[in-house]
Amino acid sequence: MDYAASEPGTTAVASALAIKILIAGGFGVGKTTMVGTISEIRPLHTEELLSERGIGVDDTSGVEAKVTTTVALDFGRITIRQGLWLYLFGTPGQDRFWFMWDELALGALGAVVLADTRRLQDCFPAVDYFEQRGIPFVVGVNCFDGARRYDPAKVRRALGLSETIPIVLCDVRERESVKNVLTTLVTYAVEGV
Amino acid sequence: MTGDDPGPLIRLFGLTGGRARPQGEMFDLVAIVTTVGGSYEPADLIPEHRAVLWLCRRPTPVADVAAHLKLPINITRVILGDLRREGLVTIERPRPVAQTIDERIYREVLHGLRSL
User: Fold this and answer.
1) Interchain pair B59, A186: CB under 8 A
2) What ipTM, to 2 d.p.?
3) Does domain B7-91 have CATH number 3.40.50?
């Protein structure tokens, strides 16, 4: 049924605005930690309940496909001022949840792709995704041990990133470091406006 | 939600009548939900509906509503769609990013981040 045309109460509320920033990258790279470091609330955890629509081709054929599963979604919040919030969403790690990325990415200010130099290939899918959709992103190289021994130029080459895309060395446990990543992203995104 | 206990699923089914999508126009994860002031509140509202109306007296993004209700986002959406249909809440319509985030907003966000 379609009630959209006569729906009561769908007028735009212009006074409040929530802006999405996505935190992407491979499993265990520090996405949730990053959200937790900067969020003013404990990262909220919600689950998206999926019907069979969300399950990919990995279902065994011949088996009843009506599986229900959940995908966890962690997010944090930064209040810029009354009525203006930043929401940081840690994107689901598994590739089969791409459709959720689409929803998360729609209208997003931009994304941080977290990279672990020991497993750089883990962030290829995220880099491809944001490049293809023209969503502004920066790459944050998470230096777990605090040692700044990674060469951003090598990371750029390995990921095939254009010169314009910022690469930031960071420690997602450090507030100032996460602030630096986010301000880099916003500065980069505003250039495209 | 895994395991053998079907309790949570049955409860979710009861909240939504088994629907997976909200009625009416789809809305974003961070669309702003606002309780319509002074609207008539039916006596037979379920607790989740009451909780939303209470929370959204201040404009609140959908994701926060879900976290507050401790419910999956799509279940929360069905609930919000029902409340919208009853005229009890308004939900911000989807708008292209270029229309919502202008240079002034970017500047505000940058300033806000730097002064954290």
Assistant:
1) no
2) 0.80
3) no
